[in-house]
């Protein structure tokens, strides 16, 4: 068989292969077409066809166009997830840590402090807490409208119309009928482009005050900054616009606890005077963003949304999960994107950090309670202002560190070492204060031990500092029954 | 042109392609052959052809067969690398932290404490330090032979001949002539198989005491355990073999500072009585392994060798870099194998951890210094044993935590949170002690402040606690001039 015969024979095989290839390519084409079609379905679903006004506060209207995002957002109503430290649907922090009642004596947090629930409940919960008081029967609320700022998607629209100061002015009864929708779409999104946006003035103003340009931040930074509109340390400044509790982020000197403390000291700002020790106290709010910024995830460019709103995929469409939640309840989509390890080990790593920090936090809580009672004893025995001044400042500084470390959501994970550093610094300052107090007491002729009364239960601690919780609860209940339904109804109309 | 003609024409092209392929395959064959040859070169170089006895103490003999490992080992003589905290070739820790002179008053560490240099210097440095005293002119050394245990590759051979207790028995002048070679090959390797081996009894005995089987550890664990033969907390037990300072790792209750403290408490063990406070002190050695075990690298199965002796490649041969050193001086081969980030950022991350911990460490050091002086003041003013007992125990516990956190090499990187947790606990205990001391002082009629004398320099602090460093230095110098050359010479013969 010469080479030509061989080639002739092989040509049949060639034809068969050719036909098989033709068929295979045809089906590949079908597959590609199907993929492209699905992609265009996805692209079609993303195309914003906005029928609602800018700042639309009703999340369900946005949900008509973005059903996946909206449906996942609705899951923030699910309170079933329990981390190891979450015993109930909304843990009563004062019940779990009655020391806190003492630490906040004279301040509204001693009345009621519960673990935050999902964004879905933001309006419900702020109305329900005893902290916000009860505007009933022409009695004005103790809570300025500034308190609503972070609670409702109704806020951006009002601010656009009346300006930030206009929105803040007055107390709850003025705006109760306007603040109906919980935190939602308009808080973070531009209604035309769906781009992330900063809708709260305080963050824009804080950036300006620190000499930074919010216009220059990256998309990835925005995925944290929209959260930082609310999850930050803040205070109400009464000297910016007369008669207005103006919301300010105290970031001018920097974001650490010490930077912010210096800011408050320079302003001689005090949240309240402690009912027992008479110390000029600061209350840390929830400096989540500030503490997160000192941690390893922030330094690697991981944003809040990367872990709390990771991308998911449904029906060929990739989108951001708007079920904002603890990543511990969603390890596969959050942690495991980078950390290829078993869920249990990753979760245990978080608990390990929490445990180590909790040990020291409890020490500091105990010391602070003693400080307040010992200072009270010193006053009771006739201490003079000048004897107490430095001590009271120590108590302010030590409790500020405790609160900054403790008040945040997840600090001991976001930045464990910084959190423990703060607590350690607090322990050292509180101990110093106790030593000074002991000397003041000696100078007043008292060498014994100052006993800490029984504060083993929330109710005992609250009675001790003179709170009539039953009365407050009754008033709140009346407000919820009489006032809130009227507010809600006005929206329905 | 029908299909047959086309095929005929194409057959020429086929032949050309065929020939090209033949040539290409030929050269590929050459390449493969070259690779295989290089591999067999490498395999040949690895093949151990041992000509020296087991436990050969002379590292250069091993180096004849393993030149790459040996040459890299020799680089442990290089002291040029400076991390941010290393200012000089062998930083004088007492010069940098004169507080340490006070913390160790009454104990040999107050005389001399320098940063460890490379393994190459282990024998030189242990001879030179003022801590080990001077066996000159028939004056016996204060240092038992147990002190050599971790310093020389001569040790495994002696232990094999005389047993561990036999080796430990007696003081330096007995074995000075035998302890010549620095830490080296025989300490970690079996001379026949080159497998890793545990040559020190203390680790084997500690495993047994803790009910664990050293025979069941993995190869990867061995890559840490050979280091753990020495880089651990240990003490000398005088009650195991009469007249012998028996080396023991106090691991029976576990590896944490608290576990080991409980072990010592149960034994009523005390390293020394503090010269100022009279507290029954513990000295932490260098609990590197124990602290490392609580960290994230250990929990991910990263061994000591992975970072301190990473694999490198030379002439087609992959081998373990025996230049044991700070990974900060070798980021590319250590950190960056897993962490794909810039060197500068990785190094800064280490510094960041060190900074946060250093802040709290300095606080604790200050508190401990005050404790010792205040306790001394209490004794001076006539305090009774029973008034002081609890306080002295507090001082013991607080300083133990400081020492455990501080004495190790790299604790603040190996396990930052555990290290800071310990320091925090120490701060809390030391503060409590100061409060109690203040009350004791008041009961003795003293309400003033106990002044801490000027200890701003090492020399001042040492004079204060009654050390005659000049005399000690002279004696040491005589020992180094007269005795050491004789010891060294005996080896040469």
Structure description:
Two copies of one chain form a homodimer. Chain A has 493 residues and is mainly alpha-helical. In chain A, 55% of the residues lie in helices and 4% in strands. Chain A contains 22 helices and six strands. Chain A has helices spanning 3-46, 59-65, 67-74, 93-96, 99-103, 122-128, 155-168, 172-175, 185-188, 201-209, 219-228, 257-267, 288-292, 296-299, 304-308, 335-338, 343-380, 385-407, 411-414, 416-443, 458-464, 469-492; strands at residues 235-237, 246-248, 272-273, 280-281, 311-314, 317-320. In chain A, the strands form three sheets. Chain A has a two-stranded antiparallel ribbon with strand order 1-2. A two-stranded antiparallel sheet of chain A has the order 3-4. Chain A is elongated. The model of chain A has no long low-confidence stretch (mean pLDDT 92). The A-B interface holds A 3-4, 7-8, 11, 296, 299-300, 341, 345, 349, 353, 356-357, 359-360, 363, 367, 416-418, 420-421, 423-425, 427-428, 431-432, 434-435, 438-439, 442-443, 447 and B 3-4, 7-8, 11, 296, 299-300, 341, 345, 349, 353, 356-357, 359-360, 363, 367, 416-418, 420-421, 423-425, 427-428, 431-432, 434-435, 438-439, 442-443, 447.
What percentage of the residues of chain A does DSSP assign to strands (E)? under 5%
Q: Treating each run of at least 4 consecutive H or I residues as one helix, how many helices of chain A?
A: 22
Look at the structure and give the mean pLDDT of chain A. Answer: 92
Cross-sheet strand order for the largest sheet of chain A: 1-2
- Flag low-confidence runs of chain A: none
């Amino acid at each position: 068989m010469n080479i030509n015969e061989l080639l002739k024979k092989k040509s049949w095989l060639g034809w068969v292969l050719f036909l098989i290839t033709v068929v295979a390519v045809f089906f590949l084409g079908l597959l590609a077409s199907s993929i492209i079609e699905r992609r265009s379905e996805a692209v079609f679903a993303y195309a914003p066809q906005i029928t609602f006004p800018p700042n639309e506060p009703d999340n369900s209207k946005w949900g008509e166009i973005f059903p996946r995002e909206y449906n996942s957002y609705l899951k923030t109503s699910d309170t079933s997830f329990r981390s190891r430290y979450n015993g109930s649907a909304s843990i009563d922090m004062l019940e779990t840590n009655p020391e806190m009642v003492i630490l906040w004596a004279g301040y509204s947090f001693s009345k009621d402090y519960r673990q935050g629930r999902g964004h879905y409940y933001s309006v419900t919960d702020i109305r329900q807490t005893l902290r916000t008081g009860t505007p009933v029967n022409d009695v004005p609320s103790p809570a300025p409208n500034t308190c609503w700022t972070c609670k409702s998607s109704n806020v951006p629209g009002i601010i656009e119309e009346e300006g930030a100061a206009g929105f803040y002015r007055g107390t709850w009864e003025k705006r109760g009928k306007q603040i109906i929708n919980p935190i939602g779409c308009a808080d973070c999104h531009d209604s035309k482009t769906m781009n992330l946006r900063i809708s709260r003035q305080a963050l824009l103003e804080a950036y300006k005050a620190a000499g930074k340009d919010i216009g220059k931040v990256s998309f990835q930074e925005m995925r944290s900054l929209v959260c930082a509109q609310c999850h930050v340390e803040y205070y109400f400044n009464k000297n910016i616009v007369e008669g207005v509790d103006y919301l300010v982020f105290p970031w001018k000197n920097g974001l650490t606890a010490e930077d912010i403390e210096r800011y408050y000291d320079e302003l001689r700002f005090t949240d309240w005077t402690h009912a027992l020790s008479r110390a000029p106290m600061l209350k840390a709010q929830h400096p989540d963003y500030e503490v997160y910024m000192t941690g390893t995830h922030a330094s690697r460019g991981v944003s809040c949304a990367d872990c709390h709103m990771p991308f998911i995929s449904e029906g060929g469409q990739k989108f951001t999960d708007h079920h904002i939640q603890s990543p511990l309840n969603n390890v596969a989509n959050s942690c495991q994107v980078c950390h290829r390890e078993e869920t249990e080990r990753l979760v245990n790593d978080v608990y390990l950090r929490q445990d180590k920090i909790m040990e020291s936090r409890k020490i500091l809580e105990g010391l602070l309670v003693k400080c307040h009672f010992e200072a009270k004893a010193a006053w009771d025995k006739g201490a003079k202002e000048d004897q107490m001044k430095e001590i009271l400042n120590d108590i302010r500084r030590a409790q500020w560190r405790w609160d900054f470390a403790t008040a945040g959501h997840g600090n001991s994970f976001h930045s464990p070492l910084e959190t423990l550093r703060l607590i350690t610094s607090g322990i050292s300052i509180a101990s110093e204060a106790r030593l000074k107090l002991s000397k003041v007491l000696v100078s007043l002729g008292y060498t014994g031990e100052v006993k800490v009364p029984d504060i083993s239960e929330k109710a005992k601690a609250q009675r001790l500092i003179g709170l009539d919780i039953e009365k407050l609860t009754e008033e709140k209940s009346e407000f919820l029954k009489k006032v809130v339904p009227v507010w809600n109804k006005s929206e329905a109309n």
